[in-house]
Amino acid sequence: MASPSPKTCASCGRRIAPSELYYRFTLILQGEQDVLDTPGGGQGDELASILRQLEADPKDPREWEEQVHWERTGVICTACRAVVMRTLAPPSGDAGPH
Ligand SMILES: [Zn+2]
Question: How many angstroms separate the CA atoms of 37 and 50, rounded?
Fold first, then answer.
């Protein structure tokens, strides 16, 4: 029936042909902090200070909200899938002690 809509790789911007394999993704970056009170370090309360900024400076709340919660869905091509998986893989993978 309807031809598949043309897709663009969200990472490299390349057009993905309808006959090509692609990968759908949902990426959510949710700000969290396990320890909210760091004695002696001025930087401890980052998440709380972001939320304070959000209240104190509402002229551009979207930007501050994205500091706490950012999500995106889309598709990526096979080449970018390999890059993404390498980026997110634990660093211990190919640099073994042997
Ligand atoms: Zn790509």
Answer: 14
Ligand 1: distance of its center to the CA of 30 in Å? 24
The DSSP letter of residue 15 is E
Separation between Cα atoms, residue 54 and residue 58, nearest integer Å: 6
Q: pTM higher than 0.70 for the full model? A: no
Termini Cα distance of the chain:
55
For ligand 1, the distance from its centroid to the CA atom of residue 11, given in whole angstroms, is: 5
Rg (CA), the chain: 20
pLDDT tens per residue, range 67-92? 889 999 999 999 999 998 998 888 77
Which helix or strand (DSSP H or E) is residue 88 part of? helix 78-88
User: What confidence tier does 6 reach under pLDDT thresholds 50, 70, 90?
Assistant: confident
